[in-house]
Amino acid sequence: MRYTVSELQEKADEIREEIIKMLVNVGSGHTGGALGAADFWTALYLGGLVRVDPNNPWDEERDRVVLSAGHYCPAQYAVLAEMGFFEKKELMSLRQINSRLQGHPVVRCLPGIENTSGPLGQGISQAVGMAIVGKRERKQWRVVCFMGDGEQQEGQVWEAYMLANKEKLANLTVVIDRNNMQIDGRTEEVMPLEPLRTKLEAFGMEVFEVDGHNIGSIMEVFAKVRMVYERPSVILLHTIPGKGVGFMEGLVEWHGKAPSAAEAVEALSELGKTKDD
Amino acid sequence: MQLVEDLDRVEVKAMRDGYGEVLLELGKDERMWVVVADLMESTRVKDFAKHYPDRFVEMGIAEQNMMGVAAGMALEGKIPFVNSFACFSPGRNYDQLRVSVCVGKANVKVVGGHAGAGNGEDGANQQSFEDVGMVRSLPNLVVVSPADYEQVKRATRAIVVHEGPVYMRMTAPARPVVTSKMTPFVLGKAQVLRRGGEVGLIVSGAMVYEGLRAAEELSGKVDVEVINIHTIKPIDESEIIRVAQKCKRVVVAEEHQIIGGLGSAVAEVLVKEGVGVKMRMVGMSDVFGESGKPEELLVKYGMSKEVIIKAIRELVGK
Asked: At the topology level of CATH, where does B191-316 sit?
C-alpha cells in the first residue's frame, strides 16, 4: 500500500497514539524519544524507504534496519505492527512477562528485529559488520542504523565510524535523532556534542540534516543518500522529544518515564483520540 | 588415552601456532571471517589475512567495535573469529560480548591469546588471570581452554562446528606439547589422562603438563588420577563426580585466578551433587602479577608442578 506524504503524517500521529497506549498500559518505558522519532519510523517503513516484507521478514534481499538506541523500540514496534509484521494487539504486551516485545529489543525476538540493543553504542558496530559483509559480497541490500544523539558519547561509536570510513560503506546510512536530550538533561549540558556535524565529517561521513518531523523532507534526504558513493552517510534528524503532546515536548523528564492514566488521556485527546476508542 | 609417550621428551610449541595453522586450513569454508585489533602477527592470523583478504578485517585498536562488528557478521550467517589478547578481549569488550554476541547467540568465536602469564614481561595489566571467571557466567557461551598446541588445533576445528558463541583462551609462549594428533577431542567431554585412586587432579590449559609431571613424580607414593577439563563450560559434571566419589580428594590447578575459574566450576558441581571431598585449588591467589618471564611468574605465584605436589601431599597427609 502506498501512502501520500500527508497520509503518512496522519499515520505518524496514529503511531504516537499506539506508543502512548503501550507505555501507559505497562507503566514504564521511554516516551519522549519514541514520540519525537515517530515521523521518522513511519516514513522509514510505511514510506517505503527500506525494502522489507512483513510476509517474508527474513528475506535475504531485505534491507537491514538496525536499532542501536534500544529504548526507542516502542516506536519501531508500533510501526512494525502497522506494517503487519505481527498483530497490533500484541503491542499491549510491551515489557511484560512472557512477551516478545522486550523493553530493549533482542535479535529476532520479533519478525523485523535485526539485532540486540540496550547498552548504547552497540548497534552501530553490528550495523557496520553487516554492511561490510553486504559490500564485500556485492549485495544490493542496504543497512540503516538508528541512533540517539546522547549515544554519540560512547567511544565505541567513533570506533565504528572509523571502520565504516575505512571500508567505504556507502551501503550504510546512520540516522541520529538530534533531539538534544538525554536522561540527565540537555546533551550540550551533560556532555557537549557540538560541533557534531564537523566531527562526523572529520570521520569521513557524508552528513545530511533534516527536519525530523517533515516526512516529505525525510524522503527527499533518503533519495540523496542513495547518490552517495564510497562513503557512509549520516542523517542528523532534528526532532523535538515528546513531539505531538504539548505537555511533553522538549522536557527532559519525559525521556525515561511513561505517562500516568490521566496524562495518557490528555495526550491521546491532543493526538485526536481518547484512550477508550 | 593417547598422549605423547615420554614426558621427558616433549616438543615445545606455541598454542597460537596451532591456531594459526588451523585457521588457514578452515579458511576454505566461505563462512569463515577473521577480525583482529592490531595484533595480526601476535595472534597468528596473518596467513589467513594473506590468503583470504576478502574475509579479513583489520579493526585497528578498537576491541569494543571489533566484538560488535563480529556480531553483525554472524547475524549475516558468517562465522567470525575475534582475535586479540585475553586482557583486551574479553577484558575490554565484555559488555559487547554479553549483549551483542551472547544474548542473541551470535555465532562468534572469541579467541583470547596470551592468557594467564602469557604477556609476562609486559606486566600485570597485560596479563589475564580473570578471563574465565568473567565469561563463565555468560549464558549461551561455551568456554574452552585447550592444553597445548595439538589440542588447540583440535579445539579450533571443534568450535567452528559448534553453532553458537565460544570463548577459547590460549596461553603463551611455547609450552610442552603433551597431547598428540591421536588424542580424542570432544567439546564438553573431560579427558582422563592418567588413572589413579587416591587424589583426583583436575587441570586445564598449560597446567595439564605440570599436573602430569606432578602425578609422575608422586608415582609409587600417591596414586593420582589426572583429568583435563578443556571445556570449562559446559563442564563435564559426570566425570568430575566420578573421580571425586572415587578419590574423595580433589586438587584443581589452572593458570588463572582461583576465584571464579575452573576450581570454582568444579566446586559448584561437587556441592550441587553433595559429594563430600577435601579440596585444594592451585592458581592465582587473588593478586595481580608483575613483570617477569611467564615461567618465572608461574613459579612465583604458585602455578607449578611443585605447588601441585605440595597440595596433593597436604590432602593425603604424606
From this structure: Rossmann fold (3.40.50)
* pLDDT for A2: 85
Task: Verify whether the Cβ–Cβ distance A163 to B60 is below 8 Å.
Answer: yes
pLDDT of residue B4: 86
Is B63 an active-site residue?
yes
Q: pLDDT (tens digit, 9 = 90+) per residue, B94-124? A: 999 999 999 999 999 999 999 999 888 999 9
* d(C-alpha B292, C-alpha B121), whole Å: 5
- How far apart are alpha carbons B82 and B70 in whole angstroms? 7
CA distance B62 to chain A (A): 6
Domain that holds residue A68: 3-272
Which residues in A lie closer than 8 A to residue B66 (C-beta atoms)?
Answer: 125
Q: Which helix (H) or strand (E) holds A67?
A: strand A64-67
Its sign, for the CA torsion B58, B64, B67, B68, is negative
Strands B224-228 and B79-85: unpaired
Which pLDDT belongs to residue A277?
46
| Active-site choice (B5, B11, B21, B63) | B63
Residue with cell 600417591: B222
Bridge partners, B144 (sequence order): B168, B231
Nearest residue of A to residue B76, measured between CA atoms: A130
What are the extents of the domains in chain B?
7-176, 191-316
Residue B217: partners with Cβ closer than 8 Å, 6 or more residues away: B305, B309
Q: Inform me whether the pLDDT recorded for B226 exceeds 80.
A: yes
Instruction: Identify any residues that bridge with B251 across adjacent strands, giving them in sequence order.
Output: B201, B280
At A20-60, the pLDDT tens digits run 999 999 999 999 999 999 999 999 999 999 999 999 999 99
- Indicate whether B313 pLDDT > 80: yes
Q: Do A133 and B78 touch (CB under 8 A)?
A: yes
The mean pLDDT of chain A is 96
Is A115's Cβ below 8 Å from some Cβ in B?
Answer: yes
Smallest Cα distance from A79 to chain B, Å: 23
Q: Look at residue A1 in the predicted model and tell me its pLDDT.
A: 61
pTM of the model: 0.95
Superfamily (CATH) of domain B7-176: Thiamin diphosphate (ThDP)-binding fold, Pyr/PP domains (3.40.50.970)
Predicted pLDDT at A276: 45
Helix-, strand-, coil-residue percentages of chain B, each rounded to 5? 40, 25, 40
Tell me if B7-176 shares its fold with B191-316. yes
Which pLDDT score is estimated for A273?
59
Query: Would you say residue B272 has pLDDT above 50?
Result: yes
Domain count, chain A: 1
- How far apart CA B225 and CA B244 sit, in angstroms, is 10
CB contact under 8 A, A129 and B76: yes
Closest-CA distance of chain B to residue A245, Å? 33
